[in-house]
Amino acid sequence: YGPASFPVSGAPGATVEVAATFTAPATPGTHRATYQLRGPNGLFGDPFWVEVRVSIATPTQPPPPPLPPPSGPSSWRVPFFSQGDPQWGSARMMTCNLSISGFGCALTSLAMIYGAYGVLHNPRTLNTCLGDDACPLRWSSFNLNSCSGSKVAFSARPAFSYQRLEEELRRGPVIVELSNSSGSQHFVVVIQGRGNDPNNYTAHDPGIRNGANQPLSKVLNFWKTYQNLNLTPHSLRTFNGTAIPASISDTEQILPKPEALSPTAEETITGTVTIYDTTDTTIILELAARSSTSNMIEMRVWTDQRSSDVWQPFSPYVEVPMDAVFFVQFRDAAGNASTVIEASVPIASSNVSSQEVYLPMVVR
């Protein structure tokens, strides 16, 4: 500590205000020093202690320099399709004879890619057009080009890296493959993003109904939690063509609400259940029900691992623990109950998306 100057004002015996400036010590903590006041005629008053609490802040790191502007559009106009949409979810993919809702993530992702290039296909019409090439989805098939009217062509299947993903996004949207050691796969469409952080990328996930414009980090976390997929994606699917940049209106994608079918003569109450969204540990189901005799409807909801006999008032959304399969049953005020309705988290095995192997051809 060095000397301190105390400007003092006021009559003798009055309360005075003092101020001092101290040179802080090198170490943080509480430090004490003895001072005595000095006036025009010398020292007066008793010596007194001054305590100073010193804290030394860690210098903040300068912010990183801003990234250079991307060379392409910041986002692409990519329509969102859910593979479980009732319009096509129950349709069977040729050769595999598997439903689009359960195993059509690659097909549905490709339909979204087509939309980015101005091709009007949905998963049902694209399934019909591709025929035997829809399942397993043969990425290098000429049908992928012909079904788009030559507007889209498959380009490459490079291994995943954020650098390559960013480069490809300058030319158009990219399909990203997620996979695990047992051969299960899931495909999503990345529509924008930059850098090495999945939080900075936006994806359309066909596996859930509210899968449009999801942070890639959320998509990766859900599929890792559910199916033990690797948190780092496996590979990319890139395409050639002239993609359409997004406008502001393209960021808002409104899905129609699901509706239960009208009850037939053999049934009084019907309903639907759809996987709507996810959190870190739960799944949000979207429900719809219809009774021909009453507007008062109850429901009971359970999962493959957690059974329940509890009936509760109908709600269009319900949050359940993370699981693979979900069950719902509806009941009206007259006691009429629906059949048990099932919904599953979709995941495709490796035979739903073919890995092309090129063999040498010998001409004799």
How far apart the termini lie comes to 97 Å
What count of helical segments does DSSP give? 6
Catalogue the unreliable spans.
Answer: 1-11, 14-19, 56-63, 66-72, 248-252, 355-364
Query: Strands across the major sheet, in which order?
Result: 7-12-8-9-10-11
- The total count of strands amounts to 19
Helix content: 10-25%
For the biggest sheet, the summary is:
6 strands, antiparallel
Q: What fraction of the residues are assigned to beta strands by DSSP?
A: 25-35%
Describe this structure as you would to a colleague.
This protein has 364 residues and is α+β, with helices and mostly antiparallel strands. 13% of the residues lie in helices and 27% in strands. It has helices spanning 100-103, 105-116, 123-130, 142-146, 162-169, 216-227; strands at 29-35, 38-39, 42-43, 48-54, 92-93, 98-99, 153-156, 174-179, 185-193, 201-204, 214-215, 235-240, 269-278, 282-291, 297-303, 312-313, 317-321, 325-332, 341-344. The strands form 6 sheets. It has a 6-stranded antiparallel β-sheet with strand order 7-12-8-9-10-11. The chain has a 4-stranded antiparallel β-sheet with strand order 16-15-18-19, with no helix packed on it. The protein has a 3-stranded antiparallel β-sheet with strand order 13-14-17, with no helix packed on it. A hairpin with an 8-residue loop joins strand 15 (297-303) and strand 16. The chain is globular and about 60 Å long. It starts with 28 loop residues before the first strand and ends in a 20-residue tail after the last strand. Residues 1-11, 14-19, 56-63, 66-72, 248-252 and 355-364 have low confidence and may be disordered.
